[in-house]
Amino acid sequence: MDEQPGLSDQYRKSSPWPLFVAFGLALFEVGIVMAEYLFPVAVGGMLMFVGSCVGILRESEYIHNPWKGLVVSAGVAFVVGGVIWAFTTGSVKLRGTAILVGGAILLFGGIAGSLWQPEPV
């Protein structure tokens, strides 16, 4: 009889990324609700959310280079944020602005990281 029935040695680790995905979304919304004082928190929450999503994709081996994942995510952020920013008003437009600012930071970080990434051995 097994000491731990149903568990496999192959699946013994757990991923920390889902916690950061949820925390990033919460920070984004808190930053939007209190935008007068906490707009940078909204941008940081968006960066945490997207970075964690890219981390999940890297950990599960859907992508091999996280820097390229950040650049693609920045492109998606520009499209989504641009549509939101162009066609809405009020606090929804503020969400679009936060997404556009976060997309610019993601693009810069993804390009910089891919340029300075050490060569694989």
Strand content: under 5%
Categorize the overall geometry.
Answer: globular
Number of helices: 4
Helicity level: over 70%
Mean pLDDT: 87
Radius of gyration: 18 Å
Oligomer: single chain
SSE run = HHHH
Could you give the count of β-strands? Answer: 0
As residue ranges, the low-confidence spans are none
Biggest sheet overview: none
Cα distance spanning the termini: 44 Å
Structural class assignment: mainly alpha
Describe the structure.
It is a single chain. The chain is mostly helical and 121 residues long. It is built from four helices and no strands. The protein is 74% helix and 0% strand. The protein is globular. The chain starts with 16 loop residues before the first helix and ends in a 5-residue tail after the last helix.
Question: Brief overview, please?
Answer:
The protein has 121 residues and is mainly α.
List keywords for this structure.
single chain; 121 residues; 4 helices; 0% strand
Please write out the topology.
Blueprint: H1 17-33, H2 35-59, H3 66-87, H4 91-116
